[in-house]
Amino acid sequence: MKVVQARALLPATRYRCRSSGSLHTSTPAGPLCAFLSLRTTSMPSDKKRPTRLQNACDFCKLKKIRCDSATRPENICTNCLKEDINCTHTIGKKKRGPRTGTSIRKHAVSVQAIIGAVIAEPETYAVPEDPNVVRKMLLDLSYHARSLERQVSRWRQAATQQGTPGPMYPAVETTLNILGCQDSDSDSDGSDLSESDTDLLAGSLREIRIITGGQEDPIVRHYGKTSNITMMKTAVRIKKEILGDQMQLPSCNGHGGEKLLRRQEFWSLYPWQLEREERQPLTFPENDLLCELVTSYFTYFQPYIPLLHRPSFERAVSEGLHLRDPRFGTVLLCVCAVASRISEDPRNLVEGAGAKYSLGWPWYKQTLPLRTTFAEAPTLYDLQICCLSAMYLMGTSASDSMWTIVGLGIRIAQDMGLHRKKKRRPEGPLNWRTLKSELCTRAFWVLLNFDVVSSLSFGRPRATSSEDFDLEWPMECDDEYWENENPEQPTGVPSRISFFIHYCKLLEILGFAQRALYPTNKSKTGKYMGVGWEQDAVIELDSALNQWSSSVPEYLRWDSSREDGLFSRQSAALITFYYWTQMQVHGRFLRELPGKNGYSLPSPSSPTMTICANAARCCVRVIEVQRRRQSQFPVIFIVPVFSTAIILLLCSWTKRKTESPSNINKEMQEVHCCLDVISTYERIYQTAGRLHDILRSVISMGDQHFQDNGANPGISNACPEHSTGLNSQGTQS
Fold it and tell me: Where are the membrane-spanning stretches (predicted)?
C-alpha cells in the first residue's frame, strides 16, 4: 500500500537540490524538488501483488482476458476448456515500430545535412567512393525534391481554388487541414498511417492557414491535446483502420480524394471582421534621431532585456522595411519610445509639453491600439510590440496597464504555441533553429519575466504558471553569431545572453515563491499541503536559490572591485534581484503577524528579520556602487530598490526600543541611499517619482526629524562612501 500526498499547487523546478539532509528529485517539468512531484511513502503490506502470466493463448488474447495456460496441464487454459475449443498459441507478439513521423523527420534532417555540406564546400566537397552510399544519397535527394514538389503543388492549388462568399465581400479564407494538424501537446501521435499518407497529410492536424489575396500566409495556430481537433484526429484514425486502403483522404481542392466539405460562408473571414480603424501613416523620427534612438536602445536596454536581434533589426531599418510593413514599423516606434527615455533631444517630447515625462510619447501613441482586430493570426511582431509597450508603460503614470498588456502578450504567445518546446510548436521541426523561432522564444521569456515582476509588484495573480509551459531556455549565443551556418557561441567567449538565462531561472524560483507562499485561496492550499507547508516551501526555495547561485558563471558573479563594464553591470542587476527574491521569500512571515491589536512587530533577532535585513543591506551596497558609477538600468530594476528600503525601515523601527539612536540612524542612512537612487530615475520615470513619494511619506509619519532629512537635497552624502564588498556567493565579506 502506498500513501501519496499531492503537491498539486506548487510548480515543478529545474533543479536537483538537497534539503534537510534528504535528496529530492525534480520532475521533468522543471525547478523545485519536493513540491514539484508526488511524494510517495512505501508502507508494509501483507497483500502480495499478483504475477502476470506470460504467453496467453490466441482466444484469451482476442478476448483480452486473463489466461492461465502457463500453469495448466498441457498448456490448455481454463477459458478454452470452458468454451470447448482448442487452446492454440499461434498469434505472435506484435513488434512496435517507430513513432509515426519519426523516420520522416530523421530523413528530412539527414537530407538537410547533405545539402548543407555540399553548399558549404561546393568546390571541395568529397563525394563518397562507395557507390552504394552515393546511390542512397541520390535517392534521398530525389525523394526530398519530389516531396517539396508535392508540397508546392498543394499550396498552389489551395491558393488558386479559393472561393469568395459574395461579389461584394472578398474574404480571407481560413483553411482547415483536418487530417494534418499535429497534437502539439502529445509526445507521440501513435498513428498507423503510412509514410505516403503522412506526407500527404502534411504533419497530422497541424495547421489552420489564413489565405489572403490568393497567397498563403504560413502563420499557424496552436491546438493542444484537449481540443476537439485532436478528438477528430482520433476519429479519422479509427475510420482509417476500418476502411483501410478504401479510405480516400479529403483535400481542399478535390485532388487526391473527396473534396472537403467547406461552405464559404462559414470558413471565410469577412472584411468587417478584419476592418481596422483608419489610421494615419506612421510618422518616424528624423533619420539622425532614428539612428541615435536605435543605438541607445541596443546599448542600454538590450543587454538586460534581449528581445530583438540587433544585426537583422538594423538591417531591416536600413532597408526601409518599416516604411512597407506597418507591424514592423510599430515595433520600431516602440523601440524609439523606450529609448527616448534616456535621450536629451527635444524632438522626443510632445509638442508644447515641457515635461520630460512626455519623452517618447509622440512615437508610442501611434502604436495604440496595439491590435484593433484579433481575427487574424498573431505574429512575432505582435509579441514584440507587447513587450516593448510594457517596457515603456512601466515608467509612466499608467504603469498598472503593463500588467494587462503582459497578460495579452502571453495569450498571443500561447495562441502561437510558443509555450511548448520548439519541436512541439505548430511551425514544425525544421524551423527549430531559425532566427524567428529563437526570437519567439526570447519574447515569451521576456513576457514571463514581466508577468512575475508585475504580478508581485501589484499583488495580482499571474497570467500563467510554470505548469503551463515547457519551452527551452533561450539559446546561449550572442547576436553576432546567430546568422552563421551553425549558430553557436565560440568556446571561451563569455556570452552576453547568459545574464538573461540566469535571470529567467531566478524569476522562475520567484514565481514559484509567489504561488507557494502568497496564494489567493489559502484554505485550499492548506488542505492539500498539510501543516507546516509554508516552512517546507521556504526550505526548498532557499535550497533552490543556493543551487542557482552556484550555477552562475564567474564573469557574472558580483565583485565590487571589478572594473565597470557590461558584465559588471549585469552581475549587479543579477545579484540585486537575487537579494530581492530572498526578501520576497522570507518577507512572507513579516506581512502577517497576528497580535492583540491585529498586528505585532517582529523581533529584531528573529530569523526572518535577520535574513531580510542582511539581504537588504547587501542590496544597498550593490546599489551604492552602481550609483557612484552612474550606471543606467531599465526602470524595472528600481522595484528591488523600493523593497529594500521598506525592509530597512522595518528593521529600524523594530530596533527603536532595544538599540541606540546611532544604530537606528545608520540604517536610516541606508534607507536614504535607496531614496537617492530612486530620485535619479524620477527625472524621467513617473513610476520612480511615485515610489519616492511613498517612501518619504512613510518615513515622515509622526517623525519630523526624518521628514527634514528626507527633504534635504544633499541626502546622498549620508550614503556610506566605502561599501563592503560582496564575494561571488553574494555574502558579506
Answer: 633-653
Could you tell me if 512 and 454 are in contact, meaning their C-beta atoms sit under 8 angstroms apart?
A: no
CB atoms within 10 A of CB 219: 17
Phi/psi-derived region of residue 235, left when phi > 0, alpha when psi is between -120 and 50, beta in every other case: alpha
Q: Which three cell numbers stand for residue 264?
A: 464559404
Contacts for 527 with CB less than 8 Å, ≥ 6 apart:
none
Peptide bond into 474 cis (omega under 30): no
Residue type, 560: S
As a whole number of Å, the end-to-end CA separation of the chain is 52
| Alpha helix positions (H), 469-532 | 498-517, 522-529
How does pLDDT run across 121-167, given as a tens digit for each residue? 777 777 888 888 888 888 888 878 887 887 777 777 665 554 433 33
Q: Choose the CATH number for 54-92 among 4.10.240.10, 2.30.30.50, 2.60.40.1500, 3.30.230.10.
A: 4.10.240.10
Output b/e per residue, 430-442; b: 16+ Cβ within 10 A.
ebeeebebbbbbb
Please give the sequence-ordered ranges of beta strands (E in DSSP) within 207-329, or none if there are none: 208-212, 215-217, 268-269
Residue with cell 526548498: 540
370 CB burial (10 A radius; 0-12, 13-18, 19+): middle
Nearest to 642 by CA among 698, 601, 590: 698
Cell numbers that stand for 629 in this block:
558609477
Residue with cell 504533419: 203
CB 417 within 8 A of CB 424: yes
Angle between helices 704-711 and 686-700 (to 10 degrees): 150
List all residues 6 or more positions away from 716 whose beta carbon is below 8 Å from its beta carbon: 627, 672, 673, 676
Distance of alpha carbon 332 from alpha carbon 337, whole angstroms: 9
Identify any residues that bridge with 40 across adjacent strands, giving them in sequence order: 4
Beta bridge partners of 259: 251
**Residue the block writes with cell 519530389:** 146
22 SS3 class: strand
Nearest by Cα to 208 from 191, 188, 233, 229: 229
Exposed / middle / buried, residue 721 (Cβ in 10 Å: 0-12, 13-18, 19+): exposed
Instruction: Please state the domain extents for the chain.
Output: 2-42, 54-92, 102-221+232-264, 287-470+489-498, 586-718
Whose CA is closest to 547, among 14, 10, 12?
A: 14
